Amino acid sequence: MKTLTQLKLAGKQLFVCSSKTHPEIAHNLENLGLLDLFVDFVGADEVVNHKPASDEIDLLVKRHGLNLSESVMLGDAKYDIRMGKNAGCATCACTWGAFDPASLEKEKADYTVDYPLEILAI
Predict the structure, then answer these.
(1) E-state strands within 4-101
(2) Average of pLDDT values for 82-110?
(3) Is the whole model's pTM more than 0.90, yes or no?
(4) Which phi and psi angles does 121 have, rounded to 5°?
(5) Which residue from 35, 66, 60 is spatially nearest to 47, judged by alpha carbons?
(6) What is the CA radius of gyration of the chain?
(7) How do residues 23-41 score in pLDDT, each as one tens digit?
(8) Can you tell me the distance from the alpha carbon of 75 to that of 113, in angstroms, rounded to the nearest whole number?
(9) What is the C-alpha to C-alpha distance for residues 99 and 81, in angstroms, rounded to an integer?
(10) Distance between CA atoms of 6 and 28, rounded to whole angstroms?
(11) Where are the alpha helices (DSSP H) in 65-120?
């Protein structure tokens, strides 16, 4: 919560791309008290091709006119990193939630962080 709040206060736009459905993401963000921190989110039910395809990021770019050269895809799974690379944006591996840290490391993300606050330095 602290890191997300600091990012938002710094003027960063925050988005979620998930293998969950749009309603599931909304429910989870609301239950966690995080819904207001995010500009938008895309679920797997809104795209044809799922992670690691770039469809979810592509949809957010289209909806919000995002510049991929100024964007970073953060994720704790190899599919997140691959999706970011497929979309053409920088990638950041987040190791604290990684199911399989070894496979995440093999993806050679542009950044790797072990703690949420480290994201602020990117």
Answers:
(1) 15-17, 40-42, 72-75, 90-94
(2) 93
(3) yes
(4) -85, -5
(5) 60
(6) 14
(7) 999 999 999 999 999 999 9
(8) 10
(9) 14
(10) 21
(11) 78-87, 101-106
